[in-house]
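User: Here's a chain of 153 residues. Predict its fold as tokens.
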Amino acid sequence: MVAQRGTDLYKLLNEADSVQIASHVDLMWMEKVPPFRSGWHQLINYGNINDTIVRERTNINKVAVSELYAILTDESSNKLSKAYCFNPHHSILIYKRGELFAIDICFECKGTAITGELSIPILTNNKSYKDLAEFFLTHKILYKLPKEGMYGY
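Assistant: Prediction complete.
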């Protein structure tokens, strides 16, 4: 089941059964490639993670969850310079009592998509995206992470 709208991120992360970070292939259009039908790759199918597109995934502990929260909600005065490709390859997956929240992240354009809307803004500046890329790197989620000097990192 995908989580409902209006959930507070701090409460959600602290009460989560588990929190994972992941990388995945493009969420691009595909033409009738078995076992799929034509359509967009989906990170979540029927409330579950689509493991066929996931490249790397790891659980993070409570200390890392606190660090992740600080990154996501950092309100540095540093501005956010955005593009509009939205080609996400990274996700934060939060499980709580059978519900799944997902934050999909595009490090290229600095965009996010949230399944089950959270009640606060996240990743509002360039520093947050740089810190989040380093967080993924530290936890060995390497697939399609921007290299230093790319996309302002």
